[in-house]
């Protein structure tokens, strides 16, 4: 995989500043086109005026505010994209579905860069759902991070389809890194199998010109992210690569523990693939 196009969601205000700065920095590094999406969905006036007494006035006001927000988002995007090859589109749609749909033309999506809790489904991006539905790798930025150094990378290995997909998607970052650790955290009775897994992954990366170190740690499931973060700290890594685990249950996403914990505690960048 090579990164030739980067997609980012722009919002009005300060929430997206770090995210846009990170996306623009990566576009310059990879000589990629930067694609910006401004997306909001107009809420029904019935939410604010359940008796319909002021429906027309509310609808007009909401439509005007939506247009103002999209204009402000575009201004922020254009400011960060100055000097880059860039494309912009604005749509009246929920951000998560708009970005997932637009991802057909992107190699990488940059998300995060703000508190990840869901604030408003009509205006804000649901990062976890995006990672499951977009079909593209999602780089999740910590709240204040404006650039990814990528000198150290920890690959969170698990012998699954999602982890293999994440490894392939991460190759542009792994090739540029100086320190790469492939870490599998497992039960004590799985150490021998995990050792074989990580050694084979390291050999595979070596064929792509990536020098990596295999590592296996025995720990319970609820300590996986703690161990990943500790190892990242040890090698001064600002990027963790992980498969994104989840499934649809009655149209709601139920996410695995590692995915949920990585998004709940965004201490460093996380590259997620599903």
Structural key phrases:
10-stranded mixed β-sheet, alpha/beta, 274 residues, two-stranded antiparallel ribbon
Descriptive account of the structure:
Residues 249-254 have low confidence and may be disordered. 39% of the residues lie in helices and 24% in strands. Helix 4 (127-133) links the parallel strand 4 (108-112) and strand 5. It has 274 residues and is α/β, with parallel strands linked by helices. The chain starts with a strand and ends with a strand. The chain is elongated. The chain is built from nine helices and twelve strands. The strands form two sheets. A ten-stranded mixed β-sheet has the order 3-2-1-4-5-12-9-6-7-8, sandwiched between helices. It has a two-stranded antiparallel sheet with strand order 10-11.
